[in-house]
C-alpha cells in the first residue's frame, strides 16, 4: 500500500443534539471543538442534525404527510388504481 495517500483516521465523537445522543467512532473528519468522553479523554466532536437515534426510519416514528391533498389530487388526475379491473 502506498504511504501518505490515505487520510488519518482518529477517534471522533458524533453528537445528535436533537436526540441528546452521542457516540464515539473512528473517522477522518476533524473539528476544532472537543468534548470529554466517558473515559476521561478529550475527542473532537462533530454535531449532526440527524442520526439513527432521531431519524424517523430508525425510531419507527415515521409519518405519511398528505400536504394539500396530494393523494386526492393524484387520484383525481390519474384515477384510483384499485377501482380498475
From TrEMBL:
GO terms for cellular component: ribosome. Pfam families: Ribosomal_L31 (PF01197). Keywords: Ribonucleoprotein, Ribosomal protein. Part of the 50S ribosomal subunit. NCBIfam families: L31, PRK01678.1. HAMAP family: Ribosomal_bL31_2 (MF_00502). This is Large ribosomal subunit protein bL31B. It comes from Streptomyces camponoticapitis.
Amino acid at each position: 500500500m502506498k504511504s501518505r495517500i490515505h487520510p488519518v483516521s482518529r477517534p471522533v465523537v458524533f453528537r445528535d443534539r436533537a436526540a441528546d445522543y452521542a457516540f464515539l467512532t473512528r473517522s477522518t473528519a476533524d473539528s476544532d471543538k472537543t468534548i470529554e468522553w466517558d473515559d476521561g479523554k478529550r475527542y473532537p466532536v462533530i454535531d449532526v442534525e440527524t442520526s439513527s437515534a432521531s431519524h424517523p426510519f430508525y425510531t419507527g416514528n415515521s409519518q405519511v404527510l398528505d400536504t394539500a391533498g396530494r393523494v386526492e389530487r393524484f387520484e383525481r388526475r390519474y384515477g384510483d388504481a384499485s377501482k380498475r379491473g
